[in-house]
Hints:
Largest sheet: 9 strands, antiparallel
CATH class: Mainly Beta
Number of domains: 1
Signal peptide: 1-20
Shape: globular
Structural class: mainly beta
Distance between the termini: 70 Å
Protein name: FecR family protein
Number of helices: 2
CATH architecture: Sandwich
InterPro entries: FecR
Number of strands: 18
Domain FecR protein: 55-152
Helix content: 10-25%
CATH topology: Jelly Rolls
Order of helices and strands: HEEEEEEEEEEEEEEEEEEH
Keywords: Signal
Amino acid sequence: MQSKNLFIAAVALFGTLSLAADAGKLTFVSGQVEIHDGKSWQKAALGALVKENEKIRTGKKGTVIISLKSGAALKLKSDSQIILSAVGASTTIDVESGSIFSKVGKRQPGQTFQIRAQTMVAAVRGTEFYFAFGKKKSDKADLWLCVNEGQVNVVDTSTKSDVNVNAGEGIVIPSSKPIPKPKAYAWTKKLNWNMDAQKGAVEDTTDLKGAYKDLLKHNYD
């Protein structure tokens, strides 16, 4: 009888863990999009479910939108890779390469949402923002971020710098210097912030190299 009870408890625990591991699903897929399930990369299809700790990447012409169970949405541009490190009341997305749009509804008390990359942590309570890797310098790259709605708090743990970025503003996070003061940039409105394919095109075709150069040009220490 004891072994039977242990078996039932184990099955119940496994079911709970499996449910907790669900992170969301893919609501838009275009071009090369793959999911790493812990063993190998698999081609992703529209409607595919994703779990916590899985990696998602796009190829040269790939775009994917992920609707998370926490209510947030992510859009990866081409040549990007992320890890869904935690999805729920506390959501953490680790960006390993490329660029990502994030749309986060207003968080309830106790709920958190953050994007991490290298030594940067961008935390929000409800906003739309875009994050990308810039030029690589030695083992680190410049990072850059701009906000469409709301406010994003950005911390660089390596330089102990901390800034708030408001709607319409952007920043460069240098690989070895403190984060400079955010500045208003008109091109933040030109990015394709749409996350719903039923409302129109979702692929972003903005000249990001030009936008990045504009950030660097106005990067005052």
